[in-house]
Amino acid sequence: MNLFEAVLTRRSIREFSDTPPEKTLIDEIIDAARWTPSWGNTQPWNVTVVRGETLRRFKEESTRLAMSGAPSEPDVSMPEKWPSRCLERYRDVGRRTLSSLSIARDDREGRNAFYLRMAELFGAPVLVVVSIEKELSLEYAMLDAGAFIQTLCLLAHEKGVGSCIMAAAVRYPGLMRELFNISQNERIVAGVALGYTDRENPVNTFERVRVEKDEIVRWVD
Question: Are the C-beta atoms of 83 and 179 separated by less than 8 Å?
Fold first, then answer.
């Protein structure tokens, strides 16, 4: 698989196989991702890899908190307002996701079940948590962390491992610090669910869309 193919064929996986990737494979992917570029080569990211019993406990507690209606308190605020063009794209992928699972717009029970499955990381056997030190400038450190996450996901795809970048994974940072031994001096940015793709599930096969390049590219000669 060349780089162009990896970029064009990678997708967010929303249901994973029960078979976990080998620890050595995940380690190989992360080791290569170290070469992600960063501002001034500062390499501001910290990486916590969670598997096994600890991940099981995290999924269980995340689901419990979600079901109890506990407020989401991420270290990095979630967007509250979108430009209309971005909002429509956001809504579109939501419609495609739920439609692939035959969940109707008025099916509140089906939607709630899907959101709880999200708290379970869609069954992923590995969670990679990316964090940055709080004293860093958030804007530049987030740019670098995002580049690292993108590199990680593309490398995983090349090795046959599916991924999903999940803001939902970091809704309860207190729980993550308690279970994962992440310092209070670190800002938890995002979680990346990793595992082999459940290729039989329609949620992993619906058509993906992107805007045409003319909508986003401005040429200046």
Answer: no
61-100 pLDDT per residue, tens: 999 999 999 999 999 998 889 999 999 999 999 999 999 9
Judge contact between 141 and 132, C-beta under 8 A. yes
Give me the helix-helix angle, 108-119 and 84-100, nearest 10°: 100
Residue-range definition of the domain harbouring residue 53: 3-202
List, for residues 140-194, the tens digit of each pLDDT value.
Answer: 999 999 999 999 999 999 999 999 999 999 999 999 999 999 999 999 999 999 9
Instruction: Let me know if residue 192 belongs to a domain.
Output: yes
CATH for 35: 3.40.109.10
Annotate 9-64 with DSSP letters as a single string: H--B-SSB-SSPPPHHHHHHHHHHHTT---GGG---EEEEEE-HHHHHHHHHHHHH
Query: Does 25 fall in a domain?
Result: yes
Domains in the chain: how many in total?
Answer: 1
Most distant CA pair in the chain: distance in Å?
57
Residues 6+ apart with CB under 8 A from 3: 154
What is the C-alpha to C-alpha distance for residues 152 and 6, in angstroms, rounded to an integer? 12
pTM over 0.90: yes
- Answer yes or no: is 216 within a domain: no
Residue 217 lies in a domain: no
